Amino acid sequence: MNNFQFHSGEPLVLDGGLGTQLEKKGCDVSSRLWSARVLLDRPDMVEQVHSEYLEAGADCITTASYQVSFEGFSKAGLSRKQTVKALQESVHLAQTSRQKFLLKHPRSRLPIIAASVGPYGASLGDGSEFHGNYQASMRELFTFHSSRLNILHAAGPDILACETIPSLMEAEAILSALRQVSGSCAWFSFTCRDRLHTAHGERLRDCVRVVAKEDLVLAIGVNCTAPELIAPLIEEIRSEAEKPIVVYPNSGQKWNAADRCWVGKKHAEDLGDMAKNWLRLGATWIGGCCGTGPDDIRRVSESVRARG
What we know:
Elements (H helix, E strand, L loop, with lengths): L11 E2 L4 H7 L10 H7 L1 H13 L4 E3 L7 H6 L4 H25 L7 E6 L2 H5 L13 H17 L4 E7 L2 H11 L7 E5 L13 H8 L5 E7 L6 H9 L6 E4 L5 E3 L4 E3 L7 H11 L1 E4 L7 H14 L1
Parallel strand pairs: 1-10, 2-3, 3-4, 4-5, 5-6, 6-7, 7-10
Antiparallel strand pairs: 8-9
């Protein structure tokens, strides 16, 4: 772990959508492997996007491992060895990007590398992480997450980003797997369908109550959720936890699983302006998810620095 004190309460600017930025650069993210396909074919592009977010003011970059899993790679005809290499490479690319950035911009506080741990639904490639209605048992979810967590942690990130969690059941499975990874720490971030509930339907505060008891979980929050829902969801989290609150919404569009694309209008309000209110409400780790890019993160960074 680097020299950032996770419990200091100091605001942290996260990066934005990785797949979104790769697509803008002409990369094909339409397959079931999404940005993991680019990780395999064009790792230089992944490194470039990490650099762009650091240049935009991000204090934390998230690895391209969200869609990397043994099950998902197997369906795509890839071996277990290739899966392990991809998980490791995702962290190494972020580390290389950070090293190059620090050569240009020496600073006392190192940018953080968060290893993305996507939900079970991401491996299915059908958008089911946005409802969580899996035909999977608790044991199957535990097994799915356990091996990836160990490999990612061994690669040396600063924190594990357990993100886009749609249900309490999956959160509990990840917690169980995380406890088996010695020396690890994580943030837990849920995806929500309205102002009160996870994508699967549990009350968010009930999920937070369970997760907040675990010392290995350093921050709790919401991601890949419409921006207009973030403020009330922060209140839900605050009602049950005193840990740092992490929020990184999407652009407000909805995922069309059949056509494998985001549809609808983007939220009109500036992400940086919304971040000011989220800071006031108690969020301290703020960034963007699908549909957001370096310009959005630059504005978030400006809001955070102005407050600081």
